[in-house]
Automatic annotation (TrEMBL):
Gene behind this protein: Slco1c1_0
Region called Disordered, residue ranges: 300-324
Primary localisation category: membrane
Protein name, entry field: Solute carrier organic anion transporter family member
Higher taxonomy: Eukaryota, Metazoa, Chordata, Craniata, Vertebrata
GO biological process, one term: monoatomic ion transport
Protein species of origin: Halcyon senegalensis
Compartment(s) of residence: Cell membrane
Length: 710
């Protein structure tokens, strides 16, 4: 800054001595060079910031794609996964005020670079448990794991198992139990996501303000729009990366894949979830490198110098003037602090702002919970694999959301919609979106036939106390455990929890090719046969399920688009009904409320509600409840969609209240407010209070975690 000031002083002193024609020539040459420098610098920063937005959106969406993988790997319930997901928001909230206030006074590009390093460190930390917690162990009968000891699935007599084999197995289990009892490795995933939230904090506020400060005014909105576009593309690649990693076995590179006896269609399958985090971490590191070489300040465009504030003027102020200016700024700061409470009172005294804030909080609760557990819902409801689920979400749903956001802004600009029209468009978008969501209740699949859980061993509906129904006359002679989950598919199309509970007496083959014979519980209802067979793995869902899944995808895409159309009008509505000097404060309160009251709690209580629909819980090696193995499809559908719709309906009531207040406040002559902000309908007296640049607002629209909540 001192060098720049001296150079400017020297430049002006030289100009006073030189002839007029040479002075004008030098000033034009200097202006041309400065313009080129400004364009080059801001474009480099724009490219770097766009890449950072892409990186953070990719890692955030990849976390969503690995929710079910993390749940199975660490044997934890959905409610705990919700806490892990919400830790990102907690990390963001820890330092957002400090970063927003002090960051603008420091070297903004380097702070963004430091944030990228912290974000990458958190991403790497999430993957670390894979290298310390040992190999993944899934429940499988001994004969399917290439064992040299031949053991009957139905252990009618424990003496048929060699004593040494039982002792070794028990000793191995106890050793593993001691290791697990001393560590809860999922905590590292939580801490890593917390670090991700801390590292992501400076990117949005400091990056956008840097562009706004040094870009030509008419280009700033375009630049910000480019950044937001890359932020939307990030989740597409995040879910596609999740699809790729879900196909790879979790311990790939550490074990012989031929010895793995489960496939990616098995509910116990865990993909290489950690691999994507390593890739995302490397991308975050690369994204942060350019910021360490960017200047703290760029030359301001010539068009902005005439209207620049104290930062430019201070270069030419004398020492006495600087002292007076400094004293004046101190008085201004004290006055601003004294106005904080009146500003807060003014903000919360605005009924439109309060009602819209309540509507947004409830709607974000609905959308965040729905998006967080959408992969799980598709897997459990339609029997799809994690890989296919992530591929579908990344390639179909997210582009629909991006197109909806763009369409909302385009409609606002094309038809020059006023504030009242924006409220109607936002309300209509929510209403028709949730109405479409209502139709998904009819597009579910019935429960798979699982003996002892969804159907009895005689083909009738399951008993209320399903754990007691796991045992029947056909397997009464077997020493089976009700805690095991090693499903097999009988030739009658019924899934059995284990070969032992199916009453199987013999097996042939190893690994994925194991076939069980003489299964006393397997057979058709008309002609039960004690010599029926079964194969490894659960049976596929009914023939109607693939068709229902296709219908679900179509409605889901239309719903995503419809709900997204109302995003931009709603945001414009928020900005139009706030006095200009309170807009930054209002947006800060809005962001804080969404993160605290929606981003953190929604994944947790959605997870708790989903856990209530579990039919069969897994068991940890040392005892205790693990991850859910099987959900009640009907109950899951009603809980997941029902909770989403109830919250959405409540938000619609608040949106109706917003529209009612706007109608009540607007007079007939005020209803002609166009997109260029010529008049206002929010009840303020000054026409100036409502003036905003519509094109800029529409293109730079941003709301909390938009790019990672798609």
């Amino acid at each position: 800054m001192e060098i720049s000031s001296k150079e400017n002083t020297h430049f002006f002193s030289n100009n006073t001595v030189l002839p007029v024609d040479r002075s004008s020539f030098k000033s034009e040459s200097s202006a041309s060079k400065e313009k080129q420098s400004c364009y080059g610098g801001i474009k480099i920063f724009l490219g770097a910031l766009s890449f950072v937005y892409f990186a953070k959106a990719l890692s955030g969406s990849y976390l969503k794609s690995t929710i079910t993988q993390i749940e199975r790997r660490f044997d934890i319930p959905s409610s705990l996964v919700g806490v892990i997901d919400g830790s990102f928001e907690i990390g963001n909230l820890l330092i957002i005020i400090l970063v927003s206030y002090f960051g603008a006074k420091l070297h903004r590009p380097r702070i963004i670079g430091a944030g990228c390093l912290i974000m990458s460190a958190g991403t790497f930390l999430i993957a670390m448990p894979q290298f310390f917690m040992g190999r993944y162990r899934y429940e499988r009968f001994t004969s399917t794991i290439n064992s040299t000891v031949s053991i009957s699935p139905c252990l009618q007599d424990k003496s048929q198992t060699p004593l040494s084999a039982l002792e070794k197995s028990q000793a191995k289990m106890n050793a593993g139990c001691e290791k697990e009892a001393g560590s809860s490795m999922w905590i590292y995933v939580l801490l890593g996501n917390l670090l991700r939230g801390i590292g992501e904090t400076p990117i949005q506020p400091l990056g956008i303000t840097y562009i706004d400060d040094y870009a030509i005014e008419e280009n700033a909105a375009l630049y910000i729009g480019c950044v937001q576009t890359l932020a939307i593309i990030g989740p597409i690649f995040g879910f596609l990366l999740g699809s790729l990693c879900a196909k790879l076995y979790v311990d790939i590179g550490f074990v012989d894949l031929d010895s793995v006896t489960i496939t990616h269609k098995d509910v116990q399958w865990v993909g290489a979830w950690w691999l994507g985090y390593l890739i995302a971490g490397v991308i975050s590191v690369l994204a942060g490198i350019p910021f360490w070489f960017l200047p703290e300040h760029l030359p301001k465009p010539q068009s902005r110098k005439d209207s620049s504030t104290s930062s430019e003027q201070s270069k030419f102020i004398t020492e006495d003037s600087k002292d007076q200016h400094k004293s004046y700024r101190q008085h201004v700061k004290i006055a601003e602090m004294a106005k904080f409470l009146p500003s807060l009172k003014n903000l919360f005294g605005n009924p439109v702002y309060i009602l819209y804030l309540c509507a947004s909080i409830i709607q974000f609760n609905s959308l965040i919970g729905m998006v967080t557990y959408k992969p799980k819902y598709i897997e459990q409801q339609y029997g799809q694999t994690s890989s296919k689920t992530n591929f579908v979400i990344g390639l179909i749903n997210i582009p629909a959301v991006a197109f909806g956001i763009f369409s909302g802004g385009l409609i606002m600009k094309k038809f020059r919609i006023n504030v009242l029209g924006a409220a109607k468009l936002s309300l209509g978008s929510s209403f028709f979106g949730y109405l479409l969501l209502l139709s998904l209740f009819a597009m579910g699949c019935e429960n798979s036939d699982v003996a002892g859980l969804t159907v009895s061993y005689h083909g009738t509906k399951r008993m209320p106390d399903y754990e007691q129904a796991l045992f029947s006359e056909c397997n009464s002679g077997c020493a089976c455990s009700k805690n095991d989950w090693d499903p097999i598919c009988g030739e009658n199309g019924v899934t059995y929890i284990s070969a032992c509970l199916a009453g199987c007496q013999a097996s042939n083959g190893t690994g994925k090719n194991t076939v069980f014979f003489n299964c006393s519980c397997v057979g058709t209802l008309e002609s039960p046969s004690p010599r029926s067979s079964a194969v490894v793995g659960p049976c596929q869902k009914g023939n109607e399920c693939p068709k229902m899944f296709l219908y679900f995808l179509v409605i889901s895409v239309i719903t995503s688009y419809t709900l997204s159309v109302g995003g931009t009008p709603g945001y414009i509505l928020l900005l139009r009904c706030i006095k200009p000097h309170l807009k930054s404060f209002a947006l800060g309160i809005y962001t804080l409320a969404i993160r605290v009251l929606a981003g953190i709690p929604a994944p947790v209580y959605f997870g708790v509600a989903i856990d209530t629909t579990c039919l069969k819980w897994g068991s940890k090696r040392c005892g205790g409840r693990g991850a859910c193995r099987l959900y009640d499809s009907s109950a899951l559908r009603y809980v997941y969609l029902g909770l989403t719709l109830v919250l959405g309906t409540v938000s619609i009531f608040f949106s109706v209240a917003v529209l009612w207040v706007l109608r009540k406040r607007s007079s007939p002559q005020d209803e002609t407010l166009s997109a260029n902000g010529e008049r206002g309908t929010c009840g303020t007296k000054s026409r100036k209070d409502h003036f905003v640049n519509s094109d800029r607002l529409i293109q730079s629209t941003y709301w909390p975690e938009k790019e990672t909540r798609l």
